[in-house]
Amino acid sequence: MNIVFSSDKKEYNTIKKGTEILLAENDGFNQNIELFVKFQDRPEILINKRKDQIHIICREISHYYRALNYAIHHMEEDEFQYQEHVCFERNGLMLDCSRNAVFTVEKVKFLIKTLAKLGMNVLMLYTEDTYEVEGQPYFGAYRGKYTKDEIKELDAYASMFGVELVPCIQTLAHLHNALKWPGMDKIRDSADILQPEKKETYQFIEKLLSSVKENFSTNRVHLGMDEAVMLGLGNYLKENGYKKGSLIIREHCNRVVDICRKLELKPMIWSDMYITANSTGGYYDLPENTDCSKWEKPKKDLGLVYWDYYHDDTRTYEKMLDIHAQLSDNIIFAGGSWIWNGISPNYSKTYACTKAALSTCKKYNIKEVLCTAWMDNGAETPVDALLPGLVLFAHLDFHRDYDETILKQEFRNCTGGEFDDFMTLDNFDSLFLNTKENKEAQNPSKYLLYQDPMLGIFDYHVKESGVNTKSYYQNIQKCMKECAKKTGKYQLLFSFYEKLAAVLADKADLGMCIKSAYDRSDRAALKDISQNVIPGIICNLTDMKSSREKIWMNDAKPFGYEILDIKIGGVITRLKSTGYRIDNYLNGNVLRLEELEEERLPYFTKGMDKRENLWNRIISGCDLNDTI
Question: In whole angstroms, how far apart are CA 465 and each of 76, 432, 433, 444, 612?
Answer without folding.
Answer: 52, 6, 9, 12, 17
